[in-house]
Backbone:
């Protein structure tokens, strides 16, 4: 089990493949995170993902 979030993590597939999560947040801001999250956190990445390998 791991809890990981990192703005330098690379998108693995799709049209944003190879971009960092930080670049995606900068590009899409409120459309990705929501206006309330952006008003509270700015461009910091306030998302936490939990991965369970069972």
Residues:
């Amino acid at each position: 089990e791991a809890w990981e979030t990192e703005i330098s993590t690379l998108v693995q597939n799709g049209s944003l493949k190879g971009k960092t999560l930080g670049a995606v947040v900068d590009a899409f801001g409120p459309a990705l995170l929501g206006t309330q999250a952006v008003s509270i956190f700015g461009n910091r990445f306030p998302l936490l993902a939990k991965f369970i390998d069972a």
